[in-house]
Amino acid sequence: MVISDDRPQHVERREQLLLVARGIFAERGFQSTTMDDIAKEAGFTKPILYQYFDSKTDLYHEIVTQTAQKLLSSLDAAVSSVESPRTKIEVAFRVYFEMVVTETDAFRILFIHAHEGQTAAELRKLEMGLIAFLEPYINISISDDHRRQLAAGVVGIAEGAAATWMVQQAAKGWPTPTPSEAERLAARSATLAWGGLRAVQQD
């Protein structure tokens, strides 16, 4: 049974375990990572790890949930300060890629390693959240089904660009990104997405 304790030491240790697990999942993938690996890397015994998380899947779920919540809340905050649908989409791309560049381990877990079963469901839940977020900003006179498909396409552009960038970074030995890296990735993807949206016609 996972213990419930709001004391600062408990919270700090829990966050430490999550951080260690995120790094190992990012490096090895979900299937190849064990609870022994995480406990050893964190400097704790496995029984202590199980006091905080019931299973490896529980750990993974927490990491994906934290990533999704942070991303969606950051997107909400950023787009609320701009007016036009186009600007909102451009700002959304910038926020997305800023998080990809600064929290690469979380996105390596999401988009680089293979997923199946519960882990695939977690990724799909995040994708659907991003699609639902974008739908209102596709300001075109089309059917709801068409709008959702376009929103999914925009999410696909972001995911594809992020995954490819991470593969390229891995091939280069994970160099430190330049200060303008996220902005450049966002501009490229936004240009492609908006160019496509401008060409959309009513069904």
Helical content band: over 70%
Assembly category: single chain
Named CATH topology: Tetracycline Repressor, domain 2
Distance between the termini: 54 Å
- Which class best fits the helix and strand makeup? mainly alpha
CATH homologous superfamily designation: Tetracycline Repressor, domain 2
Q: Which segments are poorly predicted (pLDDT under 50) over 5 or more consecutive residues?
A: none
**Mean pLDDT score:** 87
Shape: elongated
- Order of helix and strand elements from N to C terminus: HHHHHHHHH
CATH class label = Mainly Alpha
CATH architecture: Orthogonal Bundle
Characterize the main sheet.
none
Binned strand content: under 5%
Can you count the helices? 9
Walk me through the topology:
Blueprint lengths: L7 H21 L6 H8 L3 H7 L3 H24 L5 H18 L1 H8 L5 H18 L9 H28 L9 H18 L5
Helix pairs in contact: 1-2, 1-4, 1-6, 4-5, 4-7, 5-6, 5-9, 6-8, 7-8, 8-9
List keywords for this structure.
elongated; single chain; Tetracycline Repressor, domain 2; mainly alpha; 203 residues; 74% helix; 9 helices
In short:
By secondary structure, the protein is mainly alpha-helical. The chain contains nine helices and no strands.
Structure in words:
- This protein is mainly α and 203 residues long.
- It has a single domain, classed as Tetracycline Repressor, domain 2 (Orthogonal Bundle).
- The protein contains nine helices and no strands.
- The chain is elongated, with a radius of gyration of 19 Å.
- The N and C termini lie far apart (54 Å).
- The model has no long low-confidence stretch (mean pLDDT 87).
